Amino acid sequence: MNIKQGVRKIAKRIYIWLPVPYKRKKSMSYFVKRNFFREYTGEGLIDIYGNSYKSNVLKENAKKVSVVIPNYNYAEYIVERIDSVLLQTYPIHELIIIDDCSRDNSVEVIETHLKKLGYPQNIKFVINEKNSGNVFAQWQYGFKNVTGDYVWIAEADDSCHPRFLESVMEGFEDEDVVISYCESLTMNEHNQVLMKDLRPWIDIYKTGKWDKSYILSGTDEISTTLCINNTIANASSVVFRNGDYHEILEESKGYKLAGDWYAYMRIFELGKVAYLDESLNYHRMQEKSVTLSIHKDLEFAEICRVQDYALNHYTLKEEVKQKVLERRERERIRFGL
Asked: How far apart are CA 232 and CA 245, in angstroms?
């Protein structure tokens, strides 16, 4: 199978997950051609090393940002992930890399790269003796052990633009913001751009809300959109104001698939959310991970569970309640339940 055939296969799988109204308007062949084969030279390839932003690192009035990279079996991508953090135009207060007992050669790759970098003092490498079994245990470790005022959990297989942090941190100029995040693009294993943004995934009712940057009350965000579906498509796109989120993340461990959605909802209760409409986060879509869920009952149950939390704890307008139930019914039909 050549690269183009592989990408087409991924595209068709992603199409299956798109909202029904979108698929009524756009055929699969249109979606594949429009989003996957429009540009495979130049800007269609992600190359974080091709920029020269490092010479313009921001130093004045910079906030203390701690970065946590949880890694498990991502030896193939971990060097780019580390470098994508170090190449930021915004200064990094500290970087903590956590390997959760990888079964590949991740530890060797990381140690070799840190040696090449000269073992910077602000980088800490933690090797777990036992697999935690849950990504939110890594999040908890990060929030407990960082010393910065802001926390960026950068997933090991993702990447980002050098201006990611500089741009997302602008959201915290509003002191009430607890989460600031940006739009994401999707790339494949070969760093080829698959989708320029993930709005088809999050804006399932085509409201256009995410076409422009905004700052909004977290409770308003929950009661208008986050109660319907998870509108933060990729965790790597998020920077958190540091806080005591231990219990929230402990509850998130009770989910297999929707724990991040639940965590965002609970943290949004504590303040405002800032969204930036630029795709400065690079979400990696691997072919082996783009498959229909083999746990359809579980996924549907967790969608209902998070929605029920919102329905039970917030006053939702009647039209929003209808969208919640409509989305639930749509997923039930999609899963054949």
From this structure: 18
- The amino acid that residue 260 corresponds to is D
Cα gap 236→14, rounded to integer Å? 20
3-class DSSP state for residue 67?
strand
d(Cα 31, Cα 251) in Å, to the nearest integer? 37
Instruction: State pLDDT tens for residues 259-307.
Output: 999 999 999 999 999 999 999 999 998 765 544 455 889 999 999 999 9
Q: What is the pLDDT of residues 210-268, one digit of tens each?
A: 999 999 999 999 999 999 999 999 999 999 999 999 999 999 999 999 999 999 999 99
Residues 6+ apart with CB under 8 A from 326: none
What does the radius of gyration of the chain's CA atoms come to, in whole angstroms? 20
List of long-range contacts for 321-328, beta carbons under 8 Å, 24+ apart: 323/205, 323/228, 324/227, 324/228, 327/204, 327/228, 327/229, 327/303, 328/303, 328/304
Burial 248-263 (b: 16+ CB within 10 A, else e): bbeebbebeebbbbbb
Structure token pair of residue 111: 């140690």
Q: Going from the N-terminus, what domains does the chain have, and what CATH number goes with each?
A: 39-289 (3.90.550.10)
Structure tokens at 255: 């989910």
Q: Are the beta carbons of 85 and 69 closer than 8 angstroms? A: yes
Locate 165 and state its tokens: 């942090």
**Amino acid at site 296:** K
Sign of the dihedral defined by the CA atoms of residues 223, 239, 231, 71, in that order = negative
Amino acid found at 267: I
**Average pLDDT, rounded, for the chain:** 87
Q: Is 151:63 a contact under the CB 8 Å cutoff?
A: no
CA 61 to CA 240: how far, in whole Å? 18
